Structures are given as C-alpha cells and as structure tokens.
Amino acid sequence: MWFDPKCPWAWNASRWLLEVERVRDVEVRFHVMSLWLLNEGREGLEAWYERWLADTLGPVRVLIAAEQKYGTPVLRDLYTAFGNRIHHEKATIGRDLYLGALTELGLAEELADAAESTGYDEALRVSHRAGLDPVGEDLGTPAIHVTGPDGTVNAFFGPVVSPVPRAEAAGRLWDGVLNVSGTPGFFELKRGRTESPRVS
Predict the structure, then answer these.
(1) How far apart are CA 68 and CA 64, in angstroms?
(2) Helices in 24-155 by DSSP H: which ranges?
(3) Which SUPFAM superfamilies does the UniProt record give (predicted)?
(4) Is the pTM of this model over 0.90?
(5) What is the rounded CA–CA span in Å between residue 161 and residue 153?
(6) What is the DSSP string of 173-189?
(7) Tens digit of each residue's pLDDT (9 = 90 or more) over 66-118
(8) Phi, psi angles (nearest 5°) of residue 145
C-alpha cells in the first residue's frame, strides 16, 4: 500500500489492511507517496485543500529518510506512530511530531531534520511514481498493488471506507475488492460520500 500519512482515507485503508492480515493469507507492505507531489503545479485547487497540503511534504521526507536508513519494513510501525499522532491525537504536524514518533520506535532523532531537506525528494518521487504509475490517471492514496500467484500485479486506488471494517467484515471487503479489481475491463465503482472519514 502507498500512503501519505496525513490522508485520513489512507489511514483507514491501512488499518483495514492490518485487519485483513488477521483473517486472510495477506502480508501488507507499506510505501510512501505524496499528495503534495500529486498536486504539484496543478491550478484551480480549492483554497482549503491548498492550505491542507501545506504541511504534507515534511512527514513524507522523514518517512523516506527512515526507509533509506533502516529499510522498507520500518515504514509499517513509523506510519502507525505518525498516524496515531495525526489522526487520533490531532497533533500539529512538525518537528515535535516527528521526534515523538521516532523516539517511540527507538529510531535516530536526526531523521527529523529530513523534513526540511530536499535531499530526499528524488527518492520520494521514485516511490511515489512506483505506487501511482500502475494505477493510472493521477489517482491518489490509498494505492494498493496485489501480486497474484502468477506474478502479475493488480493495482488500484481505494477502497475509500469509513469506519474501518474489522475482523471477518474486513476479510469480506478484501475478497470483494480483489474480485472487482481483478476483473478484466473493470475500471470504476463509485458513489457519493455522505460523511467525513471516521478514523479508527
């Protein structure tokens, strides 16, 4: 799964996937994408969304820096540490949040400096493109890739879900998502959102 840590829909999808691990033969690996990069250079964004995007680049830089230092598996717990602070504690995104998450996991505190460094941006772009290019049409997060038994990759955007399905309900959603996304020629199933995301 490719995620931007500030996106509440990605957070819900990630918590759903961790539930899926408990009831299906699935191993989740997390990767970083960036809503800031996705919207870079776009005109006509709503003012509230431009404001919302303003603090999204720092966290993904820190995550990429941690991945480069410790390897991709570190993203699983670091995303959780970031997400709990952002989505549940409503912490301000900034250095204190980064230091708190890094300290919680016993990771190098100097990684917080990456938030202000352009030195990780090329690696961020590579990760971002790896996640979104197979999905197509500049869709965002959550972006999920599922490798089938024959090695082919089924890549898709979503699901956008609230609240997080738990236990066997998570497994049933997984089964359905695989069925529709794996159908040749299937492209979209969508309905209007009737509520803001309820993160859990």
Answers:
(1) 6
(2) 35-38, 47-53, 57-70, 74-83, 95-104, 121-132
(3) Thioredoxin-like
(4) yes
(5) 22
(6) HHHHHHHHHTSTT----
(7) 999 999 999 999 999 999 999 999 999 999 999 999 999 999 999 999 999 99
(8) -115, 130
